[in-house]
Hints:
With 248 residues, the chain is mostly helical. Helices cover 73% and strands 2% of the residues. It is built from 8 helices and 2 strands. A two-stranded antiparallel ribbon has the order 1-2. Helix 1 runs parallel beside helix 3. The longest helix is centred in the C-terminal third of the chain and has 32 residues, at 212-243. The radius of gyration is 20 Å and the shape is globular.
Amino acid sequence: MERKAKRGxxxxxxxxxxxxxxxxxxxIILATKGQYTDAAIxxxxxxxxxxxxxxxxxxxxxxxxxxAQYDSMADMISFGVAPAxxxxxxxxxxxxxxxxxxxxxxxxxxxxxLARFNTQIGIEDKRYFQGLPSPAAAALIxxxxxxxxxxxxxxxxxxxxxVSWIILVGSGVxxxxxxxxxxxxxxxxxxxxxxxxLLFATLIIIVITLEPSAILFVFFFVYALSGLLxxxxxxxxxxxLKKRPKKG
Length: 248
């Protein structure tokens, strides 16, 4: 006899995913009202929920195909649509077609990034992400908006528009690129570690609380550049090895 498929879903991880989805949706609402700092913070809150739902599912052994697909749909809203609309309403709406096309490029890249990630589940190298992860791209956008919205108007705003456009489109391109990014999944949070590591983590939290918007933006900007740099170094090494004469 054929076994019937189990009905129902695991409640806990999917509730956390729903919290993340709500945060991303709320960020869009806030952006349309001109509350850009609050919208950026909502995207970071969505990141926290996104990080929790997967870990909770693994710790409680409640992973499911439904949960994986639902998480991707939520990520599309929180890290695809929300950052693009936030950037558009914040600074790019005055650019007309150039502004909304940049936002669409980012959204389309986010959708392609998530679709590619879903097709590689179970076969990818867990130590690395192929392309900039969509939460990191969203954090880069949200961090930029949060930082400069706090600073306020300056004499260099005409350059800020250009920089923001480049970062938005560049983040989209990096998401669908073959650039490798460290996933940090090899870090064992359940095992024992030294007291120095705990102290270091505490110091990082303290530093972030001093100026969260700027520090988070700088962190994710450096992370985005790190993949490019490491990939360039690897390509140069491979070319160098190919040029070396073979022995024998």
